[in-house]
Each structure stands twice: as C-alpha cells, then as structure tokens.
Amino acid sequence: MSKMAIQVQLAFEERFGSAPEHVIRAPGRVNLIGEHTDYSGGFVLPVALEHAVWIALRPRPDQRVVLHSLDFAETAELDLSEPQKQEKGWQEYLKGITKVLQEAGWKLTGWEGVMMGDIPQGAGLSSSAALEMACLRAFAEVSGKSWQPKIAAKMAQQAETEWVGISCGIMDQLISACGVAGHALFIDCRNLEMKPVKLPEGIRIMILDTMTRRGLVDSLYNERHSQCLQAAEILGKSILREVSLTELQAQSSKLSPLLYRRAGHVISENQRVKHAVGAMRSNDLKLLGQLMQQSHASLRDNFEVSNLALNTIVECALSAPGCLGARMTGAGFGGCAVAIVKTELEMKFHNSVKDCYRKKSSLNPKIISCNPANGVTRLAPLA
Ligand code: GLA
Q: What is the secondary structure of 39-57 as a DSSP string?
C-alpha cells in the first residue's frame, strides 16, 4: 500500500476516531498525444499516473456529506436533501457530482471522509477529474452501486460541464476511470472505444512542470471548444472528427484563417494519434518522438494554446540527453510538458532540462518521472 494511502487512513482515524470503511484512489493523467481533440470526437492517448487523489471514508446514517481536504485545510459539508449553492473552489466538484448522481436517480447515502492528493494543481495533469472520480466512487461504495467506469466518467464530465462550467471533453475522466498499469489508453472519443497500448521497453515518460499557471484558462478553453464547433458547422458536420484533411483543404475558403488553423490542428492531430499508436506497437520510438514534436508545433502555431514557458521547456527537453520527443500536454496556457526519454539517460535528461530551463526562464521546474498506473480503485483499508 502506498504512503499516501496509509497517511489518508491515519488522518481519517485521527479525525473521526476509528478506521475508515473504504479507501479510494483516483489518478491524474498525462496525455502523450491527441490534445484538444476529445471534444471534437477525436483520438487521444493518455496515461493514468501514480499521482492521485485519495479519500478514506465511512458511511453516515444521515444525509450529510462531510469531506475534509488535508491539502486545502478546509472541510466541505453538504446536506444531500437540500439544493446546493454554486460557489467557487474545490467543493464545487463534489457538489456537481452530487447533483448529477441525484438527477440520474441514485439514492445517495451520506458519508464522511478525509481527502489528500499529490497531483500538482492547475498544471494540466487532471487533478480536478481525479477529485471528481474519487467523490463519485465514494458515493458508489456507500450507496451500494456497482462500479461502471465508463458511465461514471461520463457523469463526472457532465458535472464539470454543467456545474463547474467548463465544456471539457471526456479524456480526463475516462483515463482516470479506466487507466491500465504499464499502458497508455488509445481512446476514440466519438464512441468511447478504448484500447490499451503497452509502453515500449526502454523509455520513461517524464513530466516537465514549467511552474507557470495562467488565469482565464476556463474561458480560453471554452472559446477553443466553440471555435471547433463553429468550424465543423461551417463545413456541414456536427464535429471535426467527421471532416478529413482533404475536405478541409477543399473548403478552406469557407473558413476564416483563424478557424482554418484551429480545424487544421484537430484534424491533423487525430492522424498523429493513430500514427503514434502504430509507432508504439512497432517500437518505432523515433517516429513517436517526431509525432510529439509535430503535435507541439501545431498546438503552438495553429491552436495557440502554448506559452513561452512551455515552448522553452520543450526546447530544453529536445536538446537534453536521451530525449526522443517532447510537447506541451493538457489544456495548455501554462502547466506541463511531457517527454519520452531513454531510460538509461533519465538522470542526465533530468539535470540537463533543469539547468537549461532555469537559465532561460529563472524558474525552477519540477520534473516527474512516471509509471503508467491503473484507473480508480478501492483499496482494502488497513486492518
Ligand atoms: C483539458 C480537458 C480535456 C481535454 C484537454 C486538452 O484537460 O479537460 O477534456 O480537452 O484539456 O486535450
């Protein structure tokens, strides 16, 4: 059992006086390729992380949910029999999940718990999807509902869209729910078909946190989403997944230069994901790296969701020992890049990126080496 799983149980015992009945772990994610494609019904290739949100909990005999967050040093208290008020903060994810489950006809039981996590927040590693999935699993356990990961992921996405107000795609919730250890998950976001793709031997996935976070990410994200919908509509389709590159080029005069670039990113990124899956399966690490670089260039120039810090850290990564490919990851506008690196050169890569990025930006990056982990799990509590 991980250190975090033990810590969260001890914290529960200290707060509530006895051992918890359930311990839930919901992971964050890093996306290898397929960025800003999910809400257009496209392809993505994320990996679930060992970094996660943990909740230790037990049911309550009443209709209250009491969840103490050790990271925020705050306690959320909800009465399930009353409508929730919309506010700001981490509690909104819990409230959103509650509302969606009630609307779906779940008869919810109250519970009390302690939560902690080690996913860097606001860094593009899906700390909020992990929080949503952990709360959803907690409700499923205490309310005696069987766990259906895909349905749960859709409900969490609905909570984020309807309650939190971000028109996100399904990638983050789905990989947090369905991740497979040692594998990336090739997801078709149109029909939610998923295929695990084994991580090739001899490489490490490295997350490079620029330590920059940008405000207004939500509104910029929603703006990109609506630009994709607009482009699809002008081209006579409901989502960009339905448009081929040839169709886009043939009808380019119908789109403004901006919408043409946005659509061009999504459509070409979908092709890159398919090629990346082929490259992973055939161990063509050079091709995988090149595709990641093309993805970064397209996100920077066509989709315009990168920033100076992300471009700088990607450049540093590409010139570091052992690097096969690097790109920004997640929604963008700051946060993290992802790189694939030859395992035996991991330490050299790490030191080189640190030095390079520090010199160029005066910021101290955080570099995380990761192992693809499983999706949401219920752990047996300590005896
Ligand atoms: C955020 C969203 C995802 C996805 C990525 C960009 O993480 O939650 O649905 O759109 O951005 O690929």
A: GGT-EE-EEEEEEEEEEEE
Measured in Å, residue 228 CA sits from the centre of ligand 1 at 14
| Spatial CB neighbours of 148, under 8 Å, sequence gap ≥ 6 | none
Q: Which residues line ligand 1 (CB under 6 A)?
A: 35-36, 38-39, 168-169, 171-172, 330-331
Cα torsion through 288, 289, 295, 300, rounded to 10? 170
16 Cα–ligand 1 center, Å: 36
The token pair at 13 is 């015992």
Over the stretch 268-278, which tens digit does the pLDDT of each residue have? Answer: 999 999 999 99
Cα–Cα dist 190/269, whole Å:
15
Helix %, strand %, coil % for the chain, to 5? 45, 20, 35
The H or E element spanning position 10 is helix 3-16
Q: Looking at 38, 62, 118, 172, which residue is catalytic?
A: 172
Pairing of strands 64-69, 111-117: parallel
Q: Which residue matches tokens 């520090």?
A: 358
Kind and range of the H or E run holding 65: strand 64-69
Domains and CATH numbers, the chain: 3-195+373-379 (3.30.230.10), 201-370 (3.30.70.890)
Among protein residues, the one whose CA lies closest to atom 11 of ligand 1: 331
Q: How many residues does the chain have?
A: 383
Q: Is 209 annotated in the active site?
A: no
Strands of 142-222, DSSP E: 183-188, 193-198, 203-209
The tens digit of pLDDT for each residue in 222-258 reads 999 999 999 999 999 999 999 999 999 999 999 999 9
3-state secondary structure of 75: strand
